[in-house]
Amino acid sequence: MCAICGCDGEAKPSVLDLQTGRRTAIELPAHEHVHADGTRHSHPPEHQHGHPHDHDHGHNLDHGHDHAHQHGTTVALEARILAKNDALAQQNRGWFLGREILALNLVSAPGAGKTTLLERTIRDLRDELPLYVLEGDQATANDGERIRAAGAAVVQINTGTGCHLDATMVARGLAELKPPPGSVVLIENIGNLVCPALFDLGERAKVAIFSVTEGEDKPLKYPHMFRATDLVIFNKIDLLPHLDFDLARAEANARAVNSEIALLRVSARTGEGLDSWYEWLRREWVAAREATFA
Amino acid sequence: MHELALTCAIVESAEDAASGRRVIRVTLEIGRLSGVMTEAIRFCFDEVARGTGVEGAVLDIREPDGRARCRGCGAEFATPDLYTACRCGGLDLERLQGLELTINSIELAEAA
Prior knowledge:
The complex is a heterodimer of chains A (about 290) and B (about 110).
Chain A (H helix, E strand, L loop, with lengths): L13 E4 L4 E4 L5 E4 L5 E4 L25 E3 L2 E7 L2 H16 L3 E7 L5 H12 L5 E7 L4 H9 L2 E6 L8 H11 L6 E5 L16 E7 L6 H4 L1 H6 L2 E5 L11 H11 L4 E4 L8 H19 L2
Parallel strand pairs in A: 7-10, 7-11, 8-9, 8-10, 11-12, 12-13
Antiparallel strand pairs in A: 1-2, 1-9, 3-4, 5-6
Helix pairs in contact in A: 1-4, 2-3
Chain B lengths: L1 H17 L4 E8 L7 H12 L8 E5 L4 E4 L5 E3 L14 E5 L3 E8 L4
Parallel strand pairs in B: 1-2
Antiparallel strand pairs in B: 1-6, 3-4, 3-5
Helix pairs in contact in B: 1-2
């Protein structure tokens, strides 16, 4: 996935291992071409196309066509635009499955309390569940530091100018984080309700954190995210007495977009309702392990 | 802006399928409920395609309208958005159309 186009300034994507302090740039995968005769060749991802193709290749007649059928000068593809990211996400999914790892993709608008919820979860469950975190932000390791202070191993992924995590970034992050078999990997996506909805990372479930300081109509305004989400956690419910927020209406809106969505109400600050989130997490953890040999 | 990442994927796929030949047309299907702005794709396309074998290609985008079938009563109807319920009140809908995000075909210049 060429998610990094457009950021050829200084802001390159990178992963930072908070345990060792080592920062590694995320290199784009080599760009591979398949010729009509089945010959494959690749080159680095710098966009210097128009290179001469002067290599000779024999014309093997029973070559595969790589799902491209040529009719005159039109080549039918009928491929999903996100096919590459989807394929890499499936690779991640298999990686998690083979290791009995529960992977969750945490999404929200900026400031909904994803990191605070994670900090609290780590403090409450670190003796019970092996929690590992991939922390996504455009820049800074601030959130990664907070997670580490709470007591979990964490790798910070900085996307540079990217507005979402993609499957490649997660794969690089995992290579650095090295979560052990049977662990829980919490992937904190970029605070953004638009772009992360389209990019599968290979997670078992998407969890949206929805602060009650936002509008009740967020699910209607950002239907793609709520359609793709398995669980919505309404956060900051300790503030409800000070707000005009109609929680029942917000829940109805979430159900209007996604009739199967699960809903929880918590305050990561006071701890209210967190038991229901922990119950959900434990259930999913067991389900992820059972899925491996299903 | 996810449209930039999508446009990169479109140009990359088109170039891969072109096997070194010049691409003169790229046909896409972007459903009206897909969450992707076609204007933004067009805006990015020329820039992303520059210097590749897709540079200068015409971008042909079909935009199917939203349609769904209610799993409750079986009715099929047009959906202007992703939250309009069926007339029977049902919200469990099978989305038939409008979420497409596909690269359908490319047209190649005749080999010189």
